[in-house]
Amino acid sequence: MTLRTPDDRFSSLIDYPFDPHFAEWEGLRLHYLDEGVGPVVVLFHGEPTWSFLYRNVIPPLVEAGFRVIAPDYPGFGRSDKPTDPDFYSYDRMVQAMIDLCDSLDLEDATAVVQDWGGPIGLRTAVERPRRFRRLVIMNTGLFTGQGRVTPAFEAWRSFVEKTPDLPIEFILRNASESDWGSEVLAGYAAPFPTADHKIGAWRMPLIVPLAADDPGAAEMLAVREALATWSHPVLVLFSDQDPIFTTRVGERFAETIPGAEPLELIPGAGHLLQEDDPEAVAAAIIGFLNRT
What we know:
- The structure is a single chain.
- The protein has about 290 residues and is of the alpha/beta class.
- The chain has one domain (about 1-290): 3-Layer(aba) Sandwich (Rossmann fold), CATH 3.40.50.1820.
- The chain has helices at about 60-65, 90-105, 115-125, 150-160, 170-175, 180-190, 200-205, 215-225, 245-255, 275, 280-290, and strands spanning about 1-5, 20-25, 30-35, 40-45, 65-70, 80, 110-115, 130-140, 235-240, 265.
- Helix 9 links the parallel strand 9 (about 235-240) and strand 10.
- The N and C termini lie far apart (about 45 Å).
- The model has no long low-confidence stretch (mean pLDDT about 95).
């Protein structure tokens, strides 16, 4: 079964005035934002967020002369939501994004990734090198099963496993380093009116590979190996208050990708740096795009 969140759930979102765009993919309706004109920037969200996460980053990018595309993965945002947990795999989520980028015929785009957007967006970029020429890597990692995850991630995964009806607002309130306000928290919860609408958001932390033979581990290792030869420009932009993806994770990206600039930090922001300090995030991305 596939669910579609009613449109009225999105009718009065704070700071989200964007027109929806839709693409058909394997019988599902995928939603994406498409704002502005100019060189293309694709914003890949994490979990349990959606394109709403970038709503305060998009206008400055558009004003700076860029075309911004922000998709919602299957199961998230305004995209259709299959209720079969087995639907949600790393391969399938990547394929949805590859096919969307192919359908839009993108060229020389910049991939901006964060959280689950890292494994999804970075694999999309390395498997479509003609379509992507620059990367912005924020608070994310590649899980190859070759090392231990942080205690914070272990606690998060354990909580999710026991809580299929994820309390979206509670989760994001606890992830914040500032008071976002009730309207913002309600915006993140808008796509998920019932537990069945949350199957994708619930499932994604549980498919993170923890061992080298887990599904997705080999594919993420291949992404890491491809990045080790990536010579195009890369901005590694991390916050300094994220217990899951620490600054050391960001340093390793910057050290191992040939095209990467030294790690740039946004102080005082947590895991969702796009929400805690969107102005600094937008300014850093625009500066990187302009100088490269």
